[in-house]
Amino acid sequence: MDTDRFAWSELDRTVQRRLQELPGLPESPQFKKKGRRSPKAEPRSAGLDALITDLHSAARPGAHQPPELRRNVEDRLRFLPDTDLVEILRRPLSIEAQHLVLVMLPEPARPHDEGVKLCNALLSARLLLTSIAVPTRNETVRSLHIERAVTVACWLFHWLVQPLALDCDEALKKFLNDVASSQAAVDRHLVSELFIDSPLPRTPHLSDHVWQTLARGLSQREAAWVDEGRRHDPRLR
User: Fold this and answer.
1) β-pairing verdict for 31-32 and 110-111
2) Domain locations along the chain
3) Deepest in the core among 53, 57, 215, 218, taking most CB within 10 A?
4) What percentage of the chain carries pLDDT values higher than 90?
5) Contact 226/216 with Cβ under 8 angstroms?
6) What is the pLDDT of residue 223?
7) What's the CA gap between 120 and 118, in Å, rounded?
8) pLDDT at res. 213
9) What number of other Cβ atoms are within 10 A of residue 2's Cβ?
């Protein structure tokens, strides 16, 4: 898409500045004891394509768009249900477009059961690790994308997943086994950031069986490396 090419052509000059410029989320999600969030429209997926088109235009770096367009997009995003926000976040988005959607997640406070649904949906979406459109020919940009994607995933994990880990047990185990056993660079980077290189106060507090799932995934990844080495080096057979 032309809009994607334009957005990524600006990335070299903007990504370093925006890489850590994430929404100011609270340390943990805020829950109501009962009742629903502020009134939100019912899911209206049929209109999401038009909204996403406007989102790309409003978020295009350096574009001379009328300020009314950005305000209009923000207002439409603000009143979407979580299901639609997650659906948009699963689409290929530029960093700027993703940022506009992410800031809608923490407010207003949602009931606990809606928080659990959002947590399960984001785990199913792999904490957005693959949701930003990435050009494949520019390795520098690709590396910066991976860093940004992991930063967002860690932020979502500490903000939403960890406080709700017991309520999202099955989805969390599936997600951790998936990323721990994966050999993809973005997944390996996330595991390192969350569980290996993280300062001790930030190391997630998880149940024993969730840690066991993580260890099992890492063991599967190591076994895959060994098998790959044996195929390429007869001395290891």
Assistant:
1) parallel
2) 2-236
3) 218
4) 24
5) no
6) 66
7) 5
8) 86
9) 7
